[in-house]
């Protein structure tokens, strides 16, 4: 047997009912606030209706229980008995409603899930978009840096190549398919005799001296793609010729179409002149050696012929036929001996005097002999002798002979014109430490094909009998003997202007001593 | 097969025809006795418990892991327990003899005097169902408040 008081159950029923009413309404309030904040959110809607039904159920049940306890406490059992079925029915109804709301959630949640899925995918897409945008932004930032860096590198590289292009001592050029030289460096323009300020529109046709060379160059570029070490001649602005070593490469576009070419040309004129001089010197040396040998061999029999001829002339009267024949033999033998003597002079086999002398005096001596005959042909001499020139060491007679030869040649060149001017000038060339004497005429000049042969022995443009062709050879030999050089200029370039005629520059080493006495 | 289908289709019409031609006794309005209310109430408890179980499972299935939803799940569990307690309480109400409940002059001094059987003990215990329902509603309150606050925070973010 036990005795359990029912008081605790009654108190708990009443207090619990009150607490449940309060809590259910507080929950409903939050659910309501949720729906207010986000009216489109299905979940909040469900929670609101769920809490609303719960609140209704709580009220129904708790009020029922409170009413029951109050009525029973006050002894109104009958009243409670009449209300009891109604309270129970309400509770039943609300429980079913609550269950229905929860079950209804099943359908709603599916729709909500689909929306959520969609929203999630949109959110993910947005997130990816944001990530992509961020990447793009970073890339953009880096791109600016990269572009800046590349631009700097490019600028550096461009500067490097620009320096190479501008400072190169060789010609660097770019030309298009129509052979137009679109760009040329300053050295190239200088090489061709143009200035940067002029900015000339050049074409390969104007620059190449020989059209065949240009055809060959262009054909090789197009077919092979490059030309290498092509030795050709360019024409300078003043018409003079330039020997160059040319290398060029074709430029193609993305479709392998030939669009331009770029090339480098090295000026070989100086080298070529030196080579020619060397070659000429060697030729002259060998000819001189041969001439000396021949002269020696001929000189003896000629002496014998001349001796015997003169002896025989004593036996015959000069008027006799024999005497006249012997006179011819003597004259011709002497002529032969002169030629032999000239040959020996050319080959430097003849003896030379060595004395300190002044070039101006030598030229004045020459003019004293030749000026009169020049004036007869209306050729006037213009002197431009530098004062205070250093002396030279040499053979006065031989040097006179040299200058007489040059003056005679100038005379012959101007003879046909019946007038002309002979310019004689001297000056001191400090860099080579040489005294230079220039004899310039205004004659017809020397044809180009002849220019390289004028110092060859027996080469002459005069008619047979008028010259032996030894004059310039002998002059060459004498100047060589004096360790000097002869330069020939035809036509003549005076201050950038080309003038008809020929200029002979005789350059002789200056002496360190004063010209006072004869050395030998 | 076609013959079977025809029979199936025509059978309902045939039945309707027989009932119409031979009506007999038709009890159109059924009268309800007192126990029906209790049965409906008990069924409502089952229905309510089932709905809460479904809600519990669905919240779990949808991986609503935020704090608020966890409290809602606890609410569901406690309310299912409450339904069981209430169901048991209603069921055992008939097993307690009215002679064992001594009310006397004051209702508040009512006490139970009798043999302590399982039914009596359970019946007494089920009267204290608020021990389960009050914590359940506390969980519901916390759940709603947390969900609301979370939604506020999310919006701010």
Quick one: how many beta strands of chain A? 16
**Stretches with pLDDT under 50, minimum 5 residues of chain B:** none
CATH architecture of the largest domain in chain A: 2-Layer Sandwich
Q: What's the shape of chain B?
A: flat
Rounded to an integer in angstroms, the radius of gyration calculated over CA atoms of chain A is 60 Å
Whole-number tally of structural domains of chain B: 1
Biggest sheet record of chain B: 2 strands, antiparallel
Measured by DSSP, the beta-strand proportion of chain B falls in: under 5%
Compressed to H and E, one letter per element, the order of chain A equals: EHHHEEHEHHEEEHHEHEEHEEHHEEEE
The low-pLDDT segments of chain A are 515-520
What's the end-to-end separation of chain A, in Å?
175 Å
Can you write the helix and strand succession of chain B as a string? HHHEEHH
Q: How many DSSP helices of chain B?
A: 5
Largest interface: A-B, 54 and 45 residues
Main beta sheet of chain A, described?
Answer: 6 strands, antiparallel
Quaternary state of the chains: heterodimer
**How would you classify the helix and strand content of chain B by structural class?**
mainly alpha
- Count of structural domains of chain A: 4
Principal-axes shape call of chain A = rod-shaped
